[in-house]
Structures are given as structure tokens and as C-alpha cells.
Amino acid sequence: MASSRTSRVLSPGVAHARQSAILMLVGLIASTSPLPYNAVAVVPLVWAGVETVLSIQARSAARSTPQAPAGSQTRGIVSSVVGLVLVCVLIMMVLLPYAIYDMSKSLQDCTLGANTAVAATDCNARFRDGLDAILHGFLNSGQHAGG
Fold first, then answer.
1. 122 and 92 part of one domain
2. What total number of domains does the chain contain?
3. Are 70 and 116 part of one and the same domain?
4. Which pLDDT score, from 0 to 100, does residue 74 have?
5. Alpha helix (H) ranges present in 2-116?
6. Are the beta carbons of 74 and 67 closer than 8 angstroms?
7. Rounded to the nearest 10 degrees, what angle do helices 70-99 and 101-113 cross at?
8. What angle do CA 68, 84, 131 make, to 5 degrees?
9. Percent of the chain's residues with pLDDT above 90
10. In this predicted model, what pLDDT tens digit does every residue of 55-87 receive, in sequence order?
11. 80 and 131 in one domain?
């Protein structure tokens, strides 16, 4: 018995965009892991960025062909650019705590061990104080170098 359902072949731009969306979801889920393990989220996120660029390239090439509707290709390119921005933001969110790893890891350990809201607030206050000291030192060193 033959299937009455017809299979639809996706254009390369749509196929790359779908692959990118799946990889972004995997990266987002992996980024919720505890601190040393969330670095693995960079792999699917970078791959998603590559797939997004491939989607943009395929859609812009399809846009130049006369049989493709230009409006839908333009919307696809815009949505792919938005996806690429989201991928970059997610990568930064994953990698930023590694710039201040000791403080971030101690905040995570302190917060996980806090049994009360007061203890969690104390953990956050200590983290902010340490971050303020780093930023204050960074800003002061910039003033001395320029002056």
C-alpha cells in the first residue's frame, strides 16, 4: 500500500536553520550544568553558529534565483541573523564565568551549600564585593596607564 503522504524536500537554507535550532537547544540545556561541566555547551553552540552561517549563505544564494520568492528568503535571512546573535550571546554567557573562574566557582559552591535565604544573600554579597574590587582595580589601572 502506497503512502498518500508526499515527502517534502527542504531547501538547504531551511535544513541548516533547523539543524542550528536543535543545536542551540542542546547548547542551552548543556549550559545549565554546573560550572566546570557547562563548558561542553560551547561545542554545540559553535556548531549552531556554523549551521546558521551556512543557512544564511544558502538563503542568500537562493534569493538570487528567479523562481524563489524574495520575501520569504529575506525573512529567513533575518531570522538566521537573529539566531546567530542568540548563539553569540549564549556562548558569551557560558564563557564569561571562566574569566573570573575562582569567584564564580566559589559563588556556585557557596550558593549550593546555603540552607537559608540569608545565607544565599550573603554568598551573593560576597561575590558582588569581590567583583566590585576587581572592576575598581581594573578601572583604576586604566586611569594610571592613560594619565
1. no
2. 2
3. no
4. 78
5. 12-30, 42-63, 70-99, 101-113
6. no
7. 80
8. 170
9. 35
10. 989 888 876 666 666 666 778 888 889 999 999
11. no
One domain for residues 17 and 86 = yes
Q: Which residues make Cβ contacts (< 8 Å) with residue 130, sequence separation at least 6?
A: 103
Range of the domain at 128: 100-147
Q: Are 17 and 83 in contact (CB under 8 A)?
A: yes
- Higher pLDDT: 71 or 53? It is 53
Give the list of residues 6+ apart from residue 118 with CB closer than 8 angstroms, or none: none
Q: Which residues of 35-64 are buried (b: 16+ CB within 10 A; e: fewer)?
A: eeebeebbebbebbbebbbbbbebbeebbe
Domain limit, last residue, from 97, 123, 138: 97
C-alpha grid cell for residue 107? 559563588
User: In this model, does residue 2 exceed pLDDT 70?
Assistant: no
Query: What's the pLDDT tens digit per position in 15-34?
Result: 888 999 999 999 999 999 99
Question: What is residue 42's predicted lDDT score, i.e. its pLDDT?
Answer: 95
N residues, the chain: 147
Instruction: Tell whether 64 and 109 lie within a shared domain.
Output: no
DSSP-assigned letters across all residues of 88-123: HHHHHHHHHHHHTHHHHHHHHHHHHH--SHHHHHHH
